[in-house]
Amino acid sequence: MTGVKAEPRRPRRYALGAVSGLVAAVSGLALAHLAAAAVRPEASPLTAVGGAVVDRTPVALKEWAIRQFGEADKLVLGLGIIVVLGAIAAAAGLLAVRHLPAGMALAAAVGAVGAVAALSRPEAGWKDALPSLTGGAAAAGVLYLLVAALRRLGPGPAAGGMDRRGFGRLVVGALALSAGAGYAGRRLGAFGSAGATSSRADLVLPAPSVPAPPVPAGADLRIPGISRFLTPNGDFYRVDTALVVPRVDADAWRLRIHGDGVARPLTLDLRELLSRPLVEHDITLTCVSNEVGGPYAGNARWLGVRLADLLREAGVRPPSQGGPADQLVARSVDGMTLGTPVEAVMDGREALLAVGMNGEPLPFRHGFPVRMVVPGLYGYVSACKWLRELRLTTFDAYDAYWVRRSWAPRAPVKTQSRIDTPRPSAEPAPGPVAVAGVAWAQHRGIARVEVRVDAGPWHEARLGDADGDDTWRQWVWTWEATPGRHTLEVRATDRTGAVQTGKRAGTVPDGATGWHSVVVRVRSA
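Predicted structure:
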């Protein structure tokens, strides 16, 4: 009939409602990102929700994610959150088509969830809730505008109505404004971190008072496929919970040392820390999440201040000398806490507050400006990045972050060895084949590596020269390969005489055990 406005068909109306919900979510996230740039990056809804998810994820699921996705686990988590948020946004749009206030309430509720997640994060203040609340309100407002326009949608312009082109222009306009807000947030965030970037670029590390000796010429066997003896900074593994890498301004950085048994509490800036004698030392770090044969180990030349010297300067005594504290709790700028035995950092090993890595200031992703490095302990009890506080306490009085999540409070590194070459499922030609890799037992050292084929007798491998007891050692054994399918296994013996156990155990609660094995198929002659 003439004069009657035709409504869009019901399926199309619901489809456009879902689109409206998605556009509203994009707008809300963009404005929240802009608001977070004015507060702090960790207050961004995606980051806050992601951090809350990480904190509440069961240990077994976390370990599975690390095994499956490696250092891309954070990217996968972020994409998963976006997918879930997209589904909720589409649902809000569908709901708004039927009942607009209910759809808007759902959009706003998502913002409230983000605000709660932001407030639950370590170091959070009331301002951290503002970006999520802003985003939720913006999403609800955009959803109102789009669904209200959708209800006026007809086949052509009419009094008080809107055609499809008009609705499309409204969607494009909302997306354009969102893109502008997102870009402004990114630029503002980059401006906020410019001081940190500049402070790292301007930092000139003093020469070490105790330089490390040159790496022995025979430490790197130069076998194709084997891990490099010193791991380049760009290849060094990273496993942590920070969804956004903290960018700390070195000029504003401070370290506080206090707690039980601290006679003289200290607060140091970076200049004061660098004025103390610096020590250079080669140390291999290992993550407790490293499966047998896994990639989460790396070797670097570190530069830093001896932690034991700082603790003695503060009047700290280890438990063996009557000190009341047996745990040193390190806290990072993002609130992460790691607990280290006081006895271990004061027993003469080169436990460092590191400022340099392989001849340059620490990269941001590896803890700039200052991190802890303690040879012989897994990273989760010793290698706090972006350090800001050291507190002396006891293991009975305080459980650090990972201990509250089923990991052991004390975790010395276990003797491990890995076959780097040949790779699993390789098909080498018959004849001499170099079987090679690395082995580590930090603070004890590697004395011997052995390889066997198809559960046969063990054969001693040739070791690369040792660069002290705190680094891994390369090894190689020449195998006279015969055609067929074969299983290669490796084990190491540390300098105390202890042989690496072949008993398989998972990473929880204090590191994996077992012999690494590789299956290859030698081609026929």
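Summary: The first helix runs from residue 10 to 39.
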